[in-house]
Automatic annotation (TrEMBL):
Pfam families: ABC_tran. One of its GO terms (molecular function) is ATP binding. This is ABC transporter ATP-binding protein. Signal peptide: none annotated. SUPFAM superfamilies: P-loop containing nucleoside triphosphate hydrolases.
Length: 285
């Protein structure tokens, strides 16, 4: 059933411009994402990651194909209806935080509710601010917070309406490693404990390693993927003898110690192999 999926893309294409100068940013994306899944999107610069995110989130319209969010077809939806859907059923986190500096932290968090014409739910705001560890910062302004704290406000704002899906474009791109880890932990927790669905673009294998699945995008096509389960193995019932297999014990230690270093190494290796031919061509040019 359509409603079982948080995100569906069918034959999505995006072309910028026309004729000889046209750029084919997406060349036919087919993708279905479960509710409660965490997906990372990686690929070389210009491969179409941001375009993919914008089309999937209803911020931009594909040239061809169909997009559904939480079972609702958004292709061809009138702009005002699409805007309303975005405000209630989609959350966004950007590299540059995108908070309004003149509003307090709490006012920033309830902004999606206000924009959707709903009464700001201050209890819900307090709840999500507590989730991101900023319960005591509600009355501050973004300028009085560190970068990592500002990004946590952005995550609280993205989660406040309990959206079908949270889209994040390089959410850790402007942060140091320690702060990035805090943000990735929060996104992971949102998936694991709140049942949120997250789609995150990143160029950092260590960040991508937090996701359940990594999609590799090259020249507007998804050409490969890597699952975290492929390393950890499927979840076993408690007491199953396979729990004691050495590889599973190692995987268990790995799982208990984010950022999943062995998995990040695999992702990095896959990225290098994808970038290889292109990098060689460029070197030869
Ligand atoms: N508004 C636009 N008009 C014309 N071309 C565009 C536009 N936006 C993106 N493109 C082109 O589409 C392709 C994909 O761009 P996109 O921004 O999706 O890449 P990306 O994978 O997010 O790259 P990066 O890692 O550098 O952010 C690129 O060739 C880009 O130049
Ligand atoms: Mg981009």
């Amino acid at each position: 059933m359509a409603g079982d999926w948080a995100v569906e893309l069918h034959g999505v294409r995006k072309r910028y411009g026309r004729g000889r100068t046209a750029v084919h940013a997406l060349r036919g994306i087919d993708l279905t994402l479960h509710h409660g899944s965490y997906t990372a999107v990686m690929g070389p610069s210009g491969s179409g990651k941001s375009t993919f995110l914008q089309c999937a989130a209803g911020l931009d319209r594909p040239t061809a194909g169909a997009v559904r969010l939480g079972g609702t077809e958004i292709t061809g939806m009138k702009e005002n209806k699409l805007t309303a859907l975005r405000r209630t059923r989609v959350g966004f986190v950007f590299q540059a935080f995108n908070l309004l500096p003149s509003l307090t932290v709490e006012q920033n968090v309830v902004l999606p509710m206000r924009l959707a014409g709903h009464r700001p739910d201050r209890r819900r705001a307090a709840e999500v601010l507590a989730q991101v560890g900023l319960a005591d910062k509600a009355r501050r302004r973004p300028g009085q917070l560190s970068g990592g704290q500002q990004q946590r406000v952005a995550i609280a704002r993205a989660l406040v309406t309990r959206p079908d899906v949270v889209f994040a474009d390089e959410p850790t791109g402007a942060l140091d490693t320690t702060t990035a880890t805090e943000i990735l932990t929060l996104l992971r927790q949102a998936v694991d404990t709140q049942g949120a669905t997250v789609v995150m673009v990143t160029h950092d294998p260590a960040a991508a390693a937090w996701a359940d699945r990594v999609l590799f995008l090259t020249d507007g096509e998804i050409i490969d993927h890597l699952d975290r389960d492929a390393i950890d193995g499927p979840r076993l019932a408690p007491g199953h003898p396979d729990h004691l297999r050495p590889d599973r014990l190692a995987a268990g230690r790995e799982r208990g110690a984010p950022p999943y270093r062995a998995h990040a190494d695999r992702i990095a290796a896959r990225m290098t192999s994808l970038a290889g031919p292109r990098a060689r061509t460029e070197a030869a040019a």
